[in-house]
């Protein structure tokens, strides 16, 4: 899947699909065998504890790489973004360096906040601002 196709697909998801991906994504088992990638003269593979240190990373089995779940689902201007967002990151040799850079990007921080707000909306719709305003207006109307 190209970056353009990934971007288009992510933007076309409805709320239920987005919530399902956010909460029920693939998680490798303890016995999962990560596929090696030949890089810098040797075989390298994803570390088993990648999502312990970075719980927002999810592994794609079919693409043998990791995505930032928040950015993949909620990043704005995503057509300008690539690894971790529209395409998997699998340069294991530079993993720590690149993931730390990604974590500091403003679009990542914005996507994390958008993801948290979306999750709150889906798990507790009565806590959303429109619902609270309607409840207040109903209370005022009854007085």
How large is the count of helical segments? Answer: 7
Separation of the first and last Cα atoms: 57 Å
* CA-based gyration radius: 19 Å
- Fraction of residues in β-strands: 5-15%
Report a brief summary of the structure:
The protein has helices spanning 3-11, 15-23, 50-53, 69-74, 95-104, 106-123, 129-141, and strands at residues 37-39, 42-44, 57-60, 65-68.
Which key features would you list for this structure?
elongated, two-stranded antiparallel ribbon, 48% helix, mainly alpha, 143 residues, single chain, TTF-type domain-containing protein, Znf_TTF
Structure overview:
It comes from Mytilus galloprovincialis. InterPro entries: Znf_TTF (IPR006580). This is TTF-type domain-containing protein. With 143 residues, the chain is mainly α. The chain contains seven helices and four strands, in the order ααββαββαααα. The strands form two sheets. A two-stranded antiparallel ribbon has the order 1-2. The N and C termini lie far apart (57 Å).
Task: Please give the structural blueprint.
Blueprint: H1 3-11, H2 15-23, E1 37-39, E2 42-44, H3 50-53, E3 57-60, E4 65-68, H4 69-74, H5 95-104, H6 106-123, H7 129-141
Antiparallel strand pairs: 1-2, 3-4
């Amino acid at each position: 899947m190209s970056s353009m196709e990934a971007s288009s697909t992510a933007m076309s998801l409805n709320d239920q699909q987005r919530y399902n991906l956010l909460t029920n994504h693939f998680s490798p088992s303890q016995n999962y065998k990560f596929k090696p990638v030949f890089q810098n003269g040797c075989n390298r593979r994803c570390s088993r504890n990648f999502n312990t240190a970075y719980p927002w990373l999810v592994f794609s089995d079919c693409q043998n790489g990791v995505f930032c779940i928040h950015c993949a689902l909620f990043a704005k201007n995503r057509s300008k973004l690539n690894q971790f967002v529209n395409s998997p990151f699998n340069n294991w040799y530079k993993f720590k360096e690149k993931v730390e850079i990604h974590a500091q990007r403003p679009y990542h921080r914005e996507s994390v906040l958008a993801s948290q707000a979306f999750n709150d909306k889906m798990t507790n719709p009565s806590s959303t601002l429109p619902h609270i305003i309607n409840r207040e207006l109903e209370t005022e109307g009854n007085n």
